[in-house]
Amino acid sequence: WFLQQVEKIRTDVRVVNLSLANTDWYMRQQKNIRGVPLSFTDHQLENMNLVQLPNGKVLRVQDQMIISILETNRWKYPVYFSTTVQPDNRVYKGESIDNHLMMEGMVYLVVPKEGKTVNVQKTEEILLQKMKFRGLSDPEVYKDWNEANMTVNYSGIFLNLADTLRKAREYEKAIQIAEKNIEILPQDWRPYAFISQVYGQMGEMQKAYEFIQNSKGIEKERLYFNLGYTLKMSGKEDQAIEVMYKILSLNPKHVPAFKFLEATYYLKHDRDSLEKLLRNWLAKNPEDDSSAALLGQITKPGFTFPR
Fold first, then answer.
1. Under a CB-based contact definition with an 8 Å cutoff, are residues 263 and 279 in contact?
2. What is the DSSP code (8-state) at residue 76?
3. Which among 57, 203, 252, 303 would be 20 to 30 A from 84, CA to CA?
4. Cβ atoms of 103 and 123 closer than 8 Å
5. Does residue 34 contact residue 14 with C-beta atoms inside 8 Å?
6. Alpha-carbon distances of 178 from 68, 129, 198, 206, rounded to whole Å
């Protein structure tokens, strides 16, 4: 608001703050001064209320503003939502429009065609050539709690682009985008997890292990667990089991890795592996009564796994 009204930067763009869109004075200003396409008269804007649809859903004033803007604009100008807008605010007549959004950098373009996508070329150009990210990775630049939390929005854009490339099997390019993410925000664990997962999907387990081991300042157990879970979901159960044991070698008290293995062996009806796992776990975690009870159960004569 300040940049446009005072500094006169990008006055060709109409920006509507959805929280303020619930107030009459703001929307009258947007319509009469900023030229936002709206079908409501000033009198109507001053008397807006909640509207209940026949299906019981309630339209807030901001929801009605979105409807009016989209219908009055009729595709004359491109309409975007910021990627920081919450999904429950990206609605049209009470229904989500997420399947009509195409990501372009830090914004979603509303498009007629259904199917949420990423404009790879444009997003890559914006992230790698236009945006500057000054001070984000510099520890000398102070960031309060709110600012630090806001920086993760940048990771979301990088990882969305990288994941789109991963799905297209452009693995090396996907890794390069995630590496750029790390360069800009080295404290965020998510791009590290993404890269290790891509290596796992490629079948490059040694590269995945080396990458995790060389990741500085990031909890390695967390990266290994994400890798193992991804392998499990990809049908690579044996490799997932191997990864979980790596976690237990680093941290013998890592409950998620143990529970993963326990559930895997139980569902496979692999009593020998389950018994060995439980005995090793209890040797280092003797206070775990539930695991002791399970060991006692499976070692009883005549025990059979439920079908």
1. no
2. S
3. 57
4. yes
5. yes
6. 39, 16, 10, 19
| Contact residues for 184 (Cβ-Cβ < 8 A; gap 6+) | 133, 136, 137, 154, 158
Secondary structure (DSSP) of 167-216: HTT-HHHHHHHHHHHHHH-TT-SHHHHHHHHHHHHHT-HHHHHHHHHT-T
**What is the distance between the alpha carbons of residues 108 and 118, in angstroms, rounded to a whole number?**
9
**Eight-state DSSP code of residue 7:** S
In DSSP notation, 93-128 reads TTEE-GGGEEEETTEEEE-SS-S-EE-HHHHHHIII
Which amino acid, 65? Answer: M
Quote the distance between the C-alpha of residue 294 and its chain's center. 36
In this prediction the pTM is 0.84
Query: Hey, CA dihedral for 175, 177, 183, 184, is it positive or negative?
Result: negative
Amino acid at 201: Q
pLDDT tens-place string over residues 41-88: 999 999 999 999 999 999 999 999 999 999 999 999 999 999 999 999
